[in-house]
Automatic annotation (TrEMBL):
<dbReference type="Pfam" id="PF01397">
    <property type="entry name" value="Terpene_synth"/>
</dbReference>
<dbReference type="InterPro" id="IPR036965">
    <property type="entry name" value="Terpene_synth_N_sf"/>
</dbReference>
<dbReference type="InterPro" id="IPR008949">
    <property type="entry name" value="Isoprenoid_synthase_dom_sf"/>
</dbReference>
<feature type="domain" description="Terpene synthase N-terminal">
    <location>
        <begin position="28"/>
        <end position="111"/>
    </location>
</feature>
<dbReference type="InterPro" id="IPR050148">
    <property type="entry name" value="Terpene_synthase-like"/>
</dbReference>
<dbReference type="GO" id="GO:0016114">
    <property type="term" value="P:terpenoid biosynthetic process"/>
</dbReference>
<dbReference type="InterPro" id="IPR001906">
    <property type="entry name" value="Terpene_synth_N"/>
</dbReference>
<dbReference type="InterPro" id="IPR008930">
    <property type="entry name" value="Terpenoid_cyclase/PrenylTrfase"/>
</dbReference>
<protein>
    <recommendedName>
        <fullName>Terpene synthase N-terminal domain-containing protein</fullName>
    </recommendedName>
</protein>
<dbReference type="GO" id="GO:0010333">
    <property type="term" value="F:terpene synthase activity"/>
</dbReference>
């Protein structure tokens, strides 16, 4: 492989000339550039629906739901489930406010 660069200054102007050797074609072609984006998107949608169902099906007064919401937020995926999380937390706050008294871990998760 031949690669050369030449820089010449002519009348306050810089001229750069480059010469490349002819390269042989890539043996992989565009195999790694053309991946199944549609398959990945479908898989992501299925997984998001599974998590959404987990959020909806978990009982509202359970510590498990608070831990699930905390895990989703720690994974930085909460933006996918904003309405479900807001609805769950507001319902817990309004209906089970006194349920969490004495459980410091649950109170910390509520924050």
């Amino acid at each position: 492989m031949l690669l050369c660069t030449q820089t010449v200054e002519v009348d306050q102007e810089v001229i750069i000339t480059r010469c490349d050797d002819n390269h042989h074609p890539n043996v992989w072609k565009d195999h790694f550039l053309a991946y199944g984006a549609n398959e990945e998107e479908k898989k992501h949608e299925v997984l998001k629906e599974e998590v959404r169902n987990m959020l909806v099906m978990t009982p509202s007064n359970s510590l498990e739901k608070l831990e699930l919401i905390n895990t989703i937020q720690c994974l930085r995926l909460a933006y996918h489930f904003e309405s479900e999380i807001d609805e769950s937390l507001s319902y817990m706050h309004n209906c089970y406010d006194e349920y969490w008294i004495g459980d410091l871990h649950a109170i910390a998760l509520c924050f």
